[in-house]
Amino acid sequence: MFCVSKISINFYFRKIFQLDTYRVYARNNAYDSLSILISTWIAKRMKRLHQNFGVFFYSYVNWLNYETESNNA
What we know:
By secondary structure, this protein is mainly alpha-helical.
């Protein structure tokens, strides 16, 4: 049995996707309004992808934990 908290999973995926670097990219390379829009759109898409994948992975870990506990019982 292994237990993983949701906070550590979120922190792990935040380190993988490096969402803060996308926000910095959106600020620093904003030479015109079009690049601002494209950069912030990329950052929002990456954040949404990170959230959906984090929820999926957390539910998968919970299912795995449930399976191992039911097998050991």
